[in-house]
Amino acid sequence: MGRVAVVGAGTMGNGIAHVFAQHGWDVALLDVAPAPLVAAAATIRANLDRQIKKGTLTAEQRDAALSRISTGTDLKAVAGSELVVEAASESEPVKFALFSELDRLATPGAILASNTSSISITALGARTSRPESVIGMHFMNPVPVMVLVEIIRGHATSDETARRVAAIARELGKTPVEVSDYPGFVSNRVLMPMINEAAFCLMEGVAPAEAIDTVMKLGMNHPIGPLALADLIGLDTCLSILEVLHRGLGDDKYRPCPLLKRMVAAGQLGRKSGRGFHDYTAGKGA
Ligand code: NAD
I want to staple 29 with a disulfide (CB 3.0 to 4.6 A). Which of 17, 35, 137, 207 is the partner? Predict the structure, then answer.
């Protein structure tokens, strides 16, 4: 197996590092500060332990996976990896700056993949001298559990890059689906309007959060309600994606719900902050 650098150790970065390490890859997990790295290492260990309890992993395999992950705050550690998966915060200025930096530091010929939910892969590629090697590798949350990887080809992404990334996704036990680079790709263009509409229902008093989620779970056979799913994704991430859809497609049907904006302003970001549409403090939860 090869060596991968995962940049950003939040909700998605820890899951991506986990899955690569479990499948024999050496992983450099990087973030801007030590705190998210410490939290990510603890989360990866807890999730591997859960797999042991379920009987899908042995203690030896857990230890081997953990020993393949190194963490750090110096982006220079991307050198020597054949693949970089960027999973930093969903912000254009952050990712634009990161991609020109990654282009400078990564091994020539290495693939630069982004886990972005909505930011243009073409625009990220244009920040580099290697747009043919820039691609979207959109893992789903929680990464160790979800099978889909949406592969997004930018305007200049080469066939070879797309083939290699799809092959890597299969090696990780995932199913790649290739889509074109339009705002929100397929997954979030379809998902986010539903989450946004659920937030409008809550804001307008159509029903409380529990009731909205129950209608969609029991009535539409969704495994999780849209508001609980928004809490899992992170309300700040949902808001960023809706803003990209609104701006990128120019249609007011993507206008972010004012209640969602207000909750993000208040720091109620969902599970990661302990409170979102539902309350996750003191063992409560949707
Ligand atoms: P998060 O807020 O949990 O974590 C982001 C991490 O990136 C933080 O630890 C932050 O410190 C770090 N970071 C910020 N700037 C950085 C930089 N310059 N260099 C290195 N690290 C940096 O966010 P997340 O939910 O893990 O989302 C990460 C990416 O994955 C986003 O692009 C998001 O759209 C995408 N995504 C999220 C989900 C989801 O359900 N949360 C699903 C699919 C894709």
Answer: 17
Taking the centre of ligand 1 as the mean of its atom positions, its distance from the CA of residue 285, in whole angstroms, is: 23
Is the pLDDT score of 99 beyond 80? yes
pLDDT at 284 over 90: no
Q: 285 pLDDT exceeds 90? A: no
Name the 3-class secondary structure at 89: coil
The three-class DSSP label of residue 171 is: helix
Query: What's the average model confidence in pLDDT over 189-212?
Result: 98
Tens digits of per-residue pLDDT, 250-267? 999 999 999 999 999 999
Instruction: Give the residue numbers annotated as catalytic, written as ranges.
Output: 117, 138, 150, 188
Within 10 Å of residue 250's Cβ, how many Cβ atoms? Answer: 9
The three-class DSSP label of residue 193 is: helix
Burial class (CB in 10 A: 0-12, 13-18, 19+), 265: exposed
Pocket lined around ligand 1, Cβ cut-off 6 Å: 7-13, 30-33, 36, 87-90, 94, 98, 115-117, 138, 140-141, 233-234, 237, 272
pLDDT of amino acid 283: 64
Instruction: List Cα–Cα distances, 181 to 136, 164, 242, in angstroms.
Output: 9, 18, 16
